Structures are given as C-alpha cells and as structure tokens.
Amino acid sequence: MQTGFAHQSLAVVRDAIAANLDTLSAPDWIERVVADVPLPLQNLVTDLAMAPLPERTEREVERYVRDVTVALIDRDFLRQKAELLGRLQRADPTDRVPYTALQRELMRVELERRNLRDE
Fold this sequence. Notes:
Elements: H1 8-19, H2 29-35, H3 42-50, H4 58-90, H5 96-118
Helix pairs in contact: 2-3, 4-5
C-alpha cells in the first residue's frame, strides 16, 4: 500500500524505510535508512528514529504502536475514499462499466477500513 503524504519529505522517508524493511533487524538499520535519503533529510530520519515513545511498559508500547499504525492506515483509507468519491462525482453514470468499477473500489476501500477498525 502506498500512503500519500501531503509533506513530500515524509514520503521520501517512507520510501527509504520501505526500501530497507528487509534489513529491519540489522543493528545499522537506521544508518541504512539515513543513507537512502537526500542529505537535507538525514537529520529528519535521525530525529524520528530517536524520538522517545510516550509509553513505558512493553504492553503499553505495543498498544501505542498498534494504535499509531492503525490510525495511519485509516488515514490512508480516508484519502483513497475521498479520491474515489471525487472521481465518482466526475464520472459519467451512463458509462456503466467505469462507473460501476469506481463504486466497487469505493466499497472495497470502505470495507477494508471497517475491517481495520474491527480488528
């Protein structure tokens, strides 16, 4: 899934993280991510990596990370939904095949969003 970011710097950081997921357990993982972003963004990666989590126990950290992840995925589903609704409003309802495909995609995104919240 490709998450849209309004701030291009965060999209670049996201792409560097995605490119290095296969080495996530490596001790130099952050350094690899830093190396994959342009020089002006390297401090941003380091700052994000060093930001303390606001929770203390392992269980609280797990819950916090899960909630943040779910919120980010939910936000992307909302972005996709808004984009699809815009496309649906501009689509010609008499052209049934693309119009129906947009409706189905909109239903799929909403179902995935609801399933995410129910998990």
